[in-house]
User: Fold these one by one.
Assistant:
Number 1:
Amino acid sequence: MTKGYWIAHVDVTDPEAYKAYVKLNGIAFAKYGAKFLVRGGASEVRGGKLLPRHVVIEFTSFAAAKACYDSPEYQDAVKVRNTAGTVDIVIVEGYDG
């Protein structure tokens, strides 16, 4: 089964609200087996325009990645996330080559 991924680019404008979002999103991420591959850290944009913080989260499947995002637990976190800054997010299917 092909894994699923969230790729997010984030600009945190309210660090306290973002901390609350991180606490809430952990509930959904634990339920759906999310694994952080990238969570902030140093980066260099080499082309185009991106928000300054980058996050990549791995799930066991594309279906699990979508289910996590759509879950009531994560949607509760989204309400807080939307007050914490700007987020561009895509859910993608992995490549098994």
Note: The beta strands are 4-12, 35-39, 53-59, 85-93.
Number 2:
Amino acid sequence: MNESDVALIRAAMSGRSESFSTLVTHYRNFVYRTVYGILRNAADAEDVTQETFIKVYQSLKGLRQPETFPTWLARTAVRTALNWVEKSNRSRAAPLEGNIGYVQRDEYRSTQIRIDVENALNQLSPEHRAVIVLRELHGFNYEEMARILEVPVGTVRSRLFNARTKLRQLLSDERGDA
């Protein structure tokens, strides 16, 4: 995180709404990608992204160290997404957009791989999708993930191992390698 973000966070913490709006602009995609990775539904991810920023706005003054904002924001987003899954008691797959139509062989293979990965991710539990998203999409280390998910580092390692193992199995089954 750069110094301008820290200054924005401090300004937002002191009640400057234009600074918070700028923070939302800077971090909106980060939050959306995080919650979409868990929910796998674009409409739900939009709703949870908005809900996350409402919660952040309401509790921003309680943030002790502005430098921890990205981890704190990710924790809030993950918790909000997991609560959403619990409340709705469903995990829907996002429809693939567009029509493949006529594509060359390499493009078709790339599209097929993406479909296979999306299908495999949809079969993981929300907790396993969360660790995959935090690690593979955002690059958080184990300690950061433990703080975000509020679980021990060993639990993070175990969930990530199990999620990767399940993904390998599912993708192997898709290709017929089993």
Note: The chain has two domains: 1-93, 101-178.
